[in-house]
Amino acid sequence: MPVVVTAGHVDHGKSTLVRALTGTDPDRWAEEKQRGLTIDLGFAWTTLPGDHEVAFVDVPGHVRFLKNMLAGVGGVDGCLLVVAATEGWKPQSEEHLRILELVGIGRGVVALTKVDLVGDERVAEAHLEVAARLAGSFLADAEVVTVDAPHGVGVAGLGGALARLVAGAPVAEDRQRPRMWVDRSFAARGSGTIVTGTLTGGRLGVGETVELHPGGASARIRGIQSHRAALDQVGPGHRVALNLAGVAHRDVERGQAVVHSRQWEPTTTIDASLSVLAALDHPVSRRGAFHAYIGAGEHPVRVRILGPKQLGPGETGAVRLHLPVSLPLLPGDRYVLRESGRGETIGGGEVLDVAPVVAAARARPDRDVARVIGERGWIDADLLERLTGLRRAPDVGRWVVDPDVLGAARASLVSAVDAAGDRGLDLSTLDDRTRALVPSLGFAVDGGRARRPGSAVPDTDPWVDALRAAPFAPPPPDGVDRALLRDLVRRAVVVETDGAYFAREAVEEAARVVAGLLAAAPEGVTVAAIREALGTTRKWALPLVGHLDATGVTRRRGDVRIAGPRLPS
Predict the structure, then answer these.
(1) From CA 567, how far away is CA 562, in angstroms rounded?
(2) pTM
(3) Which is more confident, 548 or 249?
């Protein structure tokens, strides 16, 4: 169901129009009814001519409640700009128009209200004034409908204009990545926590677990309603009320987002474009008390202009915004920037990078995914999707890699394998990313070592030859490459036991010697007898006998060794 937001100066009749169109009073609070002044967001819906359903978000017009107005303009399909013929174009008319432009709303209808209180000449003047004010804006060609809402004059014509507006609205895109900015949170008797907002990006279903950011609190969707109809599942583009279990309503605030876990990378630092309003009478720099309005939230931010020291009225540049809380954002999200000291809207733009890694002095952000990859060199494909909203197939393993970085990494690995020679490069010495390159380069991999195809695996080594030449007084592995030593032990060319290294043949010979001793003395032989039979010293006999015990060749019984299950015949 398309969503339309109202906009316009205070007391120009926005809520009256919504009530006339829908039969629902969007002013929910007693204070609003008593004062005849909209203070907070109001909501209503109806079916327009042609069976076009539409939901309205009614916003305050008074400047003191501008932050509430800003909370209601995100994720909508169009606007209803209201200008009273009695007063004409006013400051909030202008500010609301510019805010609508900044948040990316591109379509709308204009209602010229209170025409019953002025003459035809004044109505014509108001038409001309509105046309002049809207020239060059997204509403330059919008339908303008004159309305006397209290008497029902023009209401049907306005409904028809809105029906044509929503009929041409694009279908909300389902990117399988739902997000709902919370604009209300309250407790309902017998139900618990209820949060409302406009759902974008994907679907939500009853029973699903969601997270609320900032904060990361987890909750389960107990129930879903859209315009008072209970649903098992709801798609993007609808006004939605969620009944959440596992979280108290007092712990959920306007400006939080309901999302699926592990689909987002909440951030406190973003790079964004900033279009400064042309009507501003001063340049924008880092000096000032700034607030950014993102989603349905208001956040104090530190601003750093990227490139120049300041941006003048009407100029567009890039900024880095530092937020006080982590928000689930994506490139393309819109924001509005206000300066609270002067009480004015500065401008706004769109998010370009939700996790900048380049220093602000060198950053030149845009929405190009290739830039994100290039600045990181290697990036996990899942993380890239969380940062950009776009899925790229991994180039190597689970990583997407910048082409230049990938070429250099491959060349470096080839050089390392060549330098290792016939012995081969020990893969355990490589990091995960480099090891993932091996299958794509056509190396022969054997025993955890990568070699050029066709290279021979060496059968011997000078140190191994020395072990075989002195089987029961083996030389230590001084100067032997640690990777080579691990490979020799892994392939059982060499046996390591209690810190001593023996050739495999020496261990096999020791087992045969012990078998002969036990054939003559089956009741058991001592370590001294084994040492003497091998012609070695206690230093080497003890680790050898310990290895024979560990492998089942012998078993220890008191001070002697007896035959084990693996004693050779």
Answers:
(1) 9
(2) 0.76
(3) 548
